[in-house]
Amino acid sequence: MKNIIFLIVLLLFWSCSSNEKQGEFAESIQVMVTNPAAFDRSEVLVFIPQEKLAPDFNPKAFVVLNGETEISSQFNHHDSDFKGIVVVLDQLKANEARELTVQYNKEGEVMRKYPKRTQAELSHKVGGEWKEREYIGGEFKNVDYLRVPPEHKDHSWFIRYEGPGWESDKVGYRFYLDQRNAVDVFGKTTSEPSLQKAGLDGFDSYHEMQEWGMDVLKVAKSLGVGSIGYFNGTNAVRVEVTDSVECKIVENGNLFSSVRTNYYGWNTGNAKTDVSSRLSIHAGTRLTLNKLDLSAEVDNICSGLINDAKGKLFTKAPTGQQFGYIATYGKQSLNDDNLGIAVLFSNSDFIEFTQDQFSHIVKLKPAGGKLAYYFLAAWEGEPGGIKTEEEFLTYLDQVTKELANPVQVEIK
After folding, report:
1. Residue where a domain stops, chosen among 81, 114, 147
2. Do 58 and 202 have their domain in common?
3. Are residues 349 and 381 in the same domain?
4. Cβ(175)–Cβ(157) under 8 Å?
5. Are 140 and 124 in contact (CB under 8 A)?
6. Same domain, 70 and 137
């Protein structure tokens, strides 16, 4: 009898909770998310484009329900590649189809606060002055946009940790917003947002272990991990000679963050082209997506990894069932522990693997002035981190299958 009474009370609670939710949000949209692959996946990005939502959808007053449970969600207002609703599902079983409900009001604003699992930021000094190529004095201030001053070069002390940063709860990245334009890695010992703690002393204390982690990759003259380059037949030419550069923090959300950089007049040595780079990351992943637009046709864009003697090289050509990758693994971190780094790419974009003095390289072919590829870093010091070569290769195998078999999203 007691069990029956408990069940009735529980059902009434669920009913009241559901009715309260329906009362707060009068309109609803049903979304079917399907895993087309015969394997389980975790930390699944689900993107619902704005144009697929109802015409009266209000991004200022909505929630997303997984069954009866409200889950974290985000509406991207500014990212043109991902403008719409973003959620990240903890898991999706093999061939599973799951229905989500988007509830909203046509008008008004209903605020929701969810755990912050991604971040993007850009911080430079204000209140000081330029003396030749060094910025003297001033204090760091976070900004959403910067047109890079012509005086700015490496070690100008102008930009905090020398460029924009972006992170998930797994790993952080930055690239040098100067003539180097190379991507570096911040290994994290915590899942909490950490970029805001880096480089506050105006120099590079993050090369030593901090309470949140540290810079774990040496870049030097290489492609670091996933940097943009052009292979001229002999070596990779980074985006070093340009007419001007501007950088913008596009999204800085709980589940998704992105950075856009426009390079005007990049001189590859063979041609000049404008390049727009959109870097994005979502909660629960190590992967950064880099989407490029070029104003002029070039015969290749290359990317790759630092050629470190401590890192063992692995390459895998792409197929229709899996993305390809170029990767290294070993005790190549600045903390002298295991670090895996990789660039991942589709079958249609792949040209060949090559190398130069500083980097392991993959050559890719833009189509119609567009190209997209991914890169990642997996440091053994992260919480629950990958600690062996075997684990890293197993992880890469899973990721390359997931990228070639994206989840399907349908509005019912």
Report:
1. 114
2. no
3. yes
4. no
5. yes
6. no
d(CA 106, CA 100): 19
pTM of the model: 0.94
DSSP assignment of 146-177: EEPPTT--TT-S-BGGGS-EEE-SSEEEEE-T
Domain that holds residue 370: 119-410
CA distance 360 to 313: 8
pLDDT 10s digits, 191-229:
999 999 999 986 778 999 999 999 999 999 999 999 999
Nearby residues of 272 by Cβ (< 8 Å), 6 or more positions away: 265, 266, 296
Q: Which residues of the chain have pLDDT under 50?
A: 1-22
pLDDT at residue 201, as a whole number? 83
Alpha-carbon dihedral angle through residues 9, 12, 17, 20, given to the nearest 10 degrees: -140
35 and 72 belong to one structural domain: yes
403 and 259 in one domain?
yes
Residue 152: which of 122, 174, 131 has the closest Cα? 131
Total domains in the chain come to 2
The residue ranges of DSSP E strands in 132-241, in sequence order, are 134-136, 139-142, 145-147, 165-167, 171-175, 183-188, 213-215, 229-231, 236-238
Residues 384 and 285 in one domain: yes
Cα–Cα distance between 316 and 27 in angstroms, integer?
Answer: 48
d(CA 400, CA 115): 28
Regarding whether 145 and 66 lie in a shared domain, the answer is: no
Q: Percent helix, strand and coil across the chain, each rounded to 5?
A: 15, 45, 45
Residues in the chain: 412
